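Good morning,

Attaching, inline, the backbone tokens for the sequence recovery test we're adding to the shared suite. The designed sequence is right after.
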């Protein structure tokens, strides 16, 4: 028995990184995967790769920051497959120029903040709002969000990104509380640094060396490491898990904050 046999799974941001690794893994475990992504061609490539490997997949061009696209994603899935078992809200707002400017608090720009929230928070909240009535009809459903370790504390950069993920956590838990008794679960994954195209774009070998000082594993995580947790949360194995925010971060959040200072004092890497 495969872990997602017969489950209809929507994954946003499925054309790259964590979303793509999850799409491939979900399909290998018997799920039918709706590969939703703002990049139509890349979404199609993801779906075709899954089909070529013997899985079930469908590509959909969806901008999760667009309300009509979200409605189309949910309606089309229900009309084609009759239900939604898993909604994995994984897409993130991408704008390199805005990301650079968002690192200076005194230049804080509400335009960047609202654009980030529209995709990272509202994209997930509205998709959930539209999917939940269909899940309620069947009394079951798993909603998963990719949040971030950045949501768990103050930072000196990425003000809009970090706050958007903190808001996302709140909605994940509010949905869990509101619909848990009716069979719908809602959980978040908080990845640490993960070697996706998004991360590889802004990190250097020097930054990776700095990451290694705060990680408590001997490597930086791969998209498949996050997908493994998403698979657990999507499957019925996690039926007693609701409203949780799971760090999958190489142990970076398990220590006192100054561990890297202590390591340096001890002459360790
Ligand atoms: N990589 C990391 O180190 C890391 C760490 C913490 C959290 N995360 C989170 O993981 C999730 C996935 O990130 P990733 O690193 O795999 O990124 P990625 O860039 O590899 O993939 C993101 C995908 O989202 C798509 N996308 C962008 N805007 C979209 C929109 N408006 N509508 C639909 N699709 C859209 C992109 O086309 C891309 O295919 C994000 O929510 C991110 O915040 C990543």
């Amino acid at each position: 028995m495969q872990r997602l046999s017969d489950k209809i799974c929507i994954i946003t941001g499925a054309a790259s990184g964590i979303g793509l690794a999850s799409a491939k893994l979900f399909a290998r475990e018997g799920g039918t995967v709706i590969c939703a992504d703002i990049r139509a061609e890349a979404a199609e490539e993801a779906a075709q790769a899954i089909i070529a490997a013997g899985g079930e997949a469908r590509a959909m061009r969806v901008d999760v920051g667009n309300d009509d696209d979200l409605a189309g994603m949910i309606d089309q899935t229900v009309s084609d497959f009759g239900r939604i078992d898993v909604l994995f809200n994984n897409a993130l707002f991408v704008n390199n120029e805005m990301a650079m400017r968002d690192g200076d608090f005194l230049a804080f720009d509400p335009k960047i903040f609202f654009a980030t929230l529209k995709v990272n928070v509202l994209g997930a909240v509205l998709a959930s709002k539209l999917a939940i009535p269909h899940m309620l009809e069947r009394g079951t459903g798993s909603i998963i969000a990719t949040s971030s370790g950045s949501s768990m504390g103050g930072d000196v950069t990425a003000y809009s990104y970090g706050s958007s993920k903190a808001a996302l956590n709140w909605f994940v838990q509010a949905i869990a509380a509101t619909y848990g008794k009716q069979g719908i679960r809602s959980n978040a994954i908080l990845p640490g640094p993960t070697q996706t195209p998004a991360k590889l774009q802004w990190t250097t070998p020097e930054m990776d060396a700095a990451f290694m000082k705060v990680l408590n594993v001997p490597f930086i995580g791969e998209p498949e490491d996050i997908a493994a947790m998403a698979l657990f949360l999507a499957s019925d194995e996690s039926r007693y898990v609701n409203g949780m925010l799971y760090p999958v971060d190489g142990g970076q959040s398990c220590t006192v904050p100054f561990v890297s200072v202590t390591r340096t004092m001890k002459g360790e890497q």
